[in-house]
UniProtKB/TrEMBL annotation:
Keyword Nucleotide-binding in record: yes
Species for this entry: Plantactinospora alkalitolerans
Low complexity composition-biased segments: 239-255
Residue ranges of the region described as Disordered: 239-317
Gly residues: bias regions: 304-317
Protein name according to UniProt: ABC transporter ATP-binding protein
Listed PROSITE patterns: ABC_TRANSPORTER_1, ABC_TRANSPORTER_2
Gene3D superfamilies: P-loop containing nucleotide triphosphate hydrolases (3.40.50.300)
Segments forming domain ABC transporter: 22-261
Length: 317
């Protein structure tokens, strides 16, 4: 029985609504840039539930990266309420927030962020150090996770001995080794060619389906976003409202007979800066949990149903 089945994550969903990992209400985030206040997020509300697969999409400056930092516990909102794993982040000190990240959230980044002189298995085991798990057990757990992503034969290889696709698989294994509730993937295919990127997305989708980890994919690429069950479109720090809103964005039919997607209507507001801030993801690394959007939700635009985990061409270059 997995940790998620055996017991809720410490401070986990038991303190909030059942099955809800992230609950955000009217989030705002304002940055002081040289004496000027810049609103990166303005009144964003959403709920992330276990097992969902959501894409957060928008142009540069739309606020999607700021939202990811808040959902990942890497930053705190200026206003509104954000509960992660049933715990209000406003009530947590820095150490408690780091523990929450380690036990609840997993991160996958565009640039991999692997330790260059460290083997694949030890890179994956790194988040377990913060759990106080002994070295032998850490390596066993990390090796098992690398096997799940198709790299059981690459345990002792360093990053410079791996292809880009293999390095991203190591990063995915590192994000999931702690059995998290929520997996945040920020442009995970941005540094990969199209074939390898397809394979990495397929792996993330397979893991989402098989483990129940919620997958939140942050991207500016509409083709990537269209694979998710839902798309949340952001512009100028707000979630674009749904089709029945008076200010609805334009619905544009997808090419080649595909499903419709929503294209945000042009905004008269100046583009806001999206910010980043403190925190280290491995002060935790962590897990995954799905998302249900209260506002601005876009129906599914098609989801890939993949084969076995680790299968496909993307394990390589």
């Amino acid at each position: 029985m997995s940790r998620r089945e055996a017991e809720p994550a410490p401070g986990g969903v038991r303190g909030g609504r059942p099955g809800v990992a992230v609950d955000a209400v009217d989030l705002g985030r304002t940055y002081d840039l040289g004496g000027t206040s810049v609103a990166a997020l303005r009144g964003v509300s959403l709920t992330i539930a276990a097992g969902d697969y959501v894409a957060v999409v928008g142009p540069s400056g739309s606020g999607k990266s700021t939202l990811m930092h808040l959902l990942g516990g890497l930053d705190r909102p200026t206003s509104g309420r954000l509960a992660i794993g049933g715990r209000d982040v406003a009530t947590l000190d820095a150490g408690e927030l780091a523990t929450l990240r380690n036990e609840t959230i997993g991160f996958v980044f565009q640039s991999f962020h692997l330790l260059p002189r460290t083997s694949a298995v030890d890179n994956v085991a790194l988040p377990l150090v913060y759990r106080g798990i002994g070295g032998r057990r850490r390596r066993t757990m990390a090796a098992a996770m690398l096997g799940r992503v198709g790299l059981g034969h690459r345990l002792d290889h360093r990053p410079n001995q791996l292809s880009g696709g293999e390095q991203q698989r190591v990063a995915i294994a590192r994000a999931l080794v702690t059995d998290p509730v929520l997996l945040l993937a920020d442009e995970p295919t941005g540094n990969l060619d199209s074939v390898t990127g397809e394979s990495v997305l397929g792996l993330l989708e397979d893991l989402n389906a098989s483990s129940g980890v919620a997958l939140v994919l942050v991207t500016h690429d509409r083709e990537v976003a269209a694979r998710a069950r839902r798309q949340i479109v952001m512009r100028d720090g707000v979630v674009v409202p749904p089709a029945d809103d008076p200010d609805t964005p334009t619905v544009v039919p997808a090419a080649r007979g595909g499903p419709e997607i929503v294209d945000p209507a042009p905004s008269a507001e100046p583009r806001r800066a999206s910010g980043s801030d403190s925190g280290h993801p491995f002060g935790g690394s962590g897990g995954a949990t799905g998302a249900t959007e209260r506002r601005g939700e876009i129906p599914a635009a098609g989801k890939r149903c993949g084969g076995s985990i680790g299968a496909g061409p993307g394990g390589g270059s």
